[in-house]
Specification:
11 helices, about 280 residues, elongated, four-stranded antiparallel β-sheet, alpha+beta
Length: about 280
C-alpha cells in the first residue's frame, strides 16, 4: 500500500494496488514516513474504506478538530459494540461517533449537558444498543476519567442503530424513533390499555413497526398484497382494523404517504396479538 496523505503519526490515507482508498489507524504507523512511501497494512489497528470524496473530506476535517486519543477511544467503543451486538457497522460511524464523543467530552468539561428528549424511547425500542452504549460510557470513564450522563448513552445508541442501516442519515433514525413512539401511543389510546413491554408480542410489534416506518421514509416499495387475507383479517379483528385506519390517516396527513393493504394486514395481526389479553 502507498501513502497518499498523512494526517498524523497514527492516521494515514493509503491506496492499494487496485487504487482503493482507505484510512489506516495505528500507533506510530506513519512515524518517519511521507506521502508516496510504502506502508505495511499489518501495523494498522483499524482500517476502513473510503468510498466517496465526501467521506475523505469529512475525515480530514475530523482529524483537524478531534484529538487522536478521542479517535482511538471511539475505535475501541465501536469494536466492542460490534462484538456485543454481533453486527458490522458501516465505516461512516467512525466519523460520526468520534465527532460526537469528542464534543460530548468538551461539553462535559464546560458543564454544558445536552438533554436527550428521546432517551425513554431509545431505552424501550433499542434496548440492546442502549446497553452497549452504557458499556461505552464505562470505557469513556476509564480512559478519560469523565462520567457522561445517560443522555449520552442514548445518543451513542442512536449512532449504533444508524450504523446498521446502509446509507441512512441520522435524522431518519431519529424520525423513525419518534414515529414509532407516536404509533405505540395511538394503539394504547385506541384500546385504552398499557401494552406489556416485556412480552414477546410487544417486541415483535416494535420490530415490525420500526422496519415498516423506515421503509415508508426511504420509499422502499412493498410487496404484492393478498386481498382475500386482508378482508378476512379486517372482518375477524374489527377493532384492530379501526386502529390501523387511524395509523393510515396519520401517515396520510403528516407524511403524505400511503400504507398498502398488505402492510395494514400485518399491522392488524401484530396489534391483535399484542392487545389480546389471552395472547391469542
Amino acid at each position: 500500500m502507498v501513502i497518499k496523505k498523512i494526517y498524523n503519526n497514527n492516521i494515514v490515507l493509503v491506496e492499494d494496488e487496485k487504487q482503493l482508498e482507505m484510512i489506516l489507524l495505528g500507533r506510530g504507523i506513519a512515524f518517519q514516513k511521507k506521502a508516496g512511501d510504502e506502508i505495511n497494512p499489518g501495523r494498522a489497528e483499524k482500517r476502513f474504506v473510503i468510498d466517496s470524496p465526501e467521506l475523505t473530506s469529512r475525515f480530514s476535517e475530523l482529524v483537524k478538530e478531534v484529538p487522536v486519543n478521542h479517535l482511538e477511544l471511539s475505535c475501541r467503543i465501536i469494536e466492542d459494540a460490534q462484538k456485543r451486538l454481533n453486527v458490522t457497522f458501516s465505516d461512516a460511524i467512525y466519523i460520526g461517533l468520534s465527532d460526537h464523543i469528542s464534543y460530548a467530552l468538551y461539553r462535559s468539561k464546560q458543564k454544558l449537558p445536552l438533554k436527550n428528549n428521546l432517551l425513554w424511547e431509545i431505552k424501550r425500542f433499542y434496548p440492546r444498543e442502549y446497553q452497549a452504549a452504557r458499556e461505552a460510557l464505562k470505557t469513556i470513564a476509564y480512559y478519560e476519567n469523565v462520567w457522561l450522563p445517560d443522555d449520552e448513552a442514548g445518543y451513542i445508541a442512536l449512532h449504533f442503530v444508524n450504523a446498521t442501516q446502509e446509507g441512512e442519515e441520522m435524522q431518519t433514525t431519529i424520525q423513525v424513533t419518534e414515529t414509532v413512539q407516536e404509533l405505540i401511543k395511538m394503539i394504547q389510546i385506541h384500546f385504552n390499555m398499557s401494552l406489556d413491554e416485556t412480552s414477546l408480542s410487544y417486541q415483535r410489534l416494535i420490530t415490525h413497526i420500526r422496519y415498516f416506518v423506515r421503509r415508508l421514509f426511504v420509499n422502499e416499495p412493498a410487496g404484492g398484497g393478498d386481498d382475500l387475507l386482508f378482508e378476512q383479517v379486517k372482518s375477524a379483528y374489527p377493532r384492530s382494523y379501526t386502529c390501523v385506519c387511524k395509523i393510515r390517516d396519520y401517515f396520510r396527513m403528516k407524511f403524505h404517504c400511503e400504507i398498502t393493504e398488505e402492510e395494514m394486514t400485518y399491522l392488524m395481526l401484530h396489534i391483535r396479538r399484542v392487545t389480546s389479553r389471552e395472547g391469542t
